[in-house]
Amino acid sequence: MICFNWPLFRKTFHIFGQFPFVVYSLSIMLWSLGEAAWVFHLPNYAEYKGRSPSEAASLLTAMGAGSMFSRVFAGIAASDSNIDAVLLQVGLSGLAGTVSFLFTVGSSSYMSQLAFSYFYATYSQGINTLIGPIIINLLGLPHVAVAYGIVCFFCGLGHLLGPPITSTLYKGSGIYEYTYVFAGACLVLGSIATALTNIGRLNTSTQEI
User: Fold this and answer.
1) Where are the alpha helices (DSSP H) in 49-143?
2) Of the residues 27, 40, 173, 193, which has the fewest C-beta atoms closer than 10 A?
3) How confident is the prediction along the chain (209 residues), in pLDDT tens digits per residue?
């Protein structure tokens, strides 16, 4: 028999009352919306641009190379007490959004598509590494497990909605580039939302003082 865990419910409700955490969850959802649109449509978009199926698939390999570098670099940077993980995510998400916008006008050749895929992953994938440290900074260690689960829910929601939204966008417009304009807009908005997380955290700290 499953019993209702009232202390856990109170902890979860308390977390949702923390403005910086709520905004951060929104930023992760926006990031995952853009991320899902990018990855899901990349092989099809490359074939749409004239690439062969094997060339289109190799773009994901380029993303994997950038992802490995990004995750390790972000972890090392976040371990430095002089670097704010929130500001680091603001920069990474904003740069990933910029790469997405540029991808729509500069991806005519196979080599340029490889380069864009690599640099996009270099900027976007480090955010995976930053989620844990940022949650700790926002809420403290006692709330990490519940908060991480909530953030993963919003991340999953973005991955659930991103591909069908962009598929509908392409179906309605017939212009595949809009997929990456949408992805770029989500990533830039996610960067802005992350910045608001820092502002909210500073305001909360000021009120406590």
Assistant:
1) 53-78, 85-103, 110-124, 126-139
2) 173
3) 445 454 555 556 667 677 888 899 999 999 999 999 999 999 999 998 889 999 999 999 999 999 998 999 888 888 888 888 999 999 999 999 999 999 988 888 899 999 999 999 999 999 999 998 999 888 888 778 888 888 999 999 999 999 999 999 999 988 889 999 999 999 999 999 999 887 766 554 434 43
Is residue 23 within 8 Å of residue 154, measured between CB atoms? no
Query: Phi-psi bin for 2: left (phi > 0), alpha (psi -120 to 50), beta?
Result: beta
DSSP 106: S
Q: Rounded distance, CA 43 to CA 141, Å? A: 40
**Which residues have CB under 8 Å from 120's CB, separation 6+?**
38, 63, 66, 96, 99, 100, 103
For residues 35 and 182, what is the distance between their CA atoms, to the nearest angstrom?
A: 10
Phi-psi group of 50: left, alpha or beta (phi > 0 → left; psi -120 to 50 → alpha; rest → beta)? left
Tokens of 52: 């062969």
In CATH terms, the fold of domain 40-208 is Growth Hormone; Chain: A; (1.20.1250)
The domains of the chain are located at 40-208
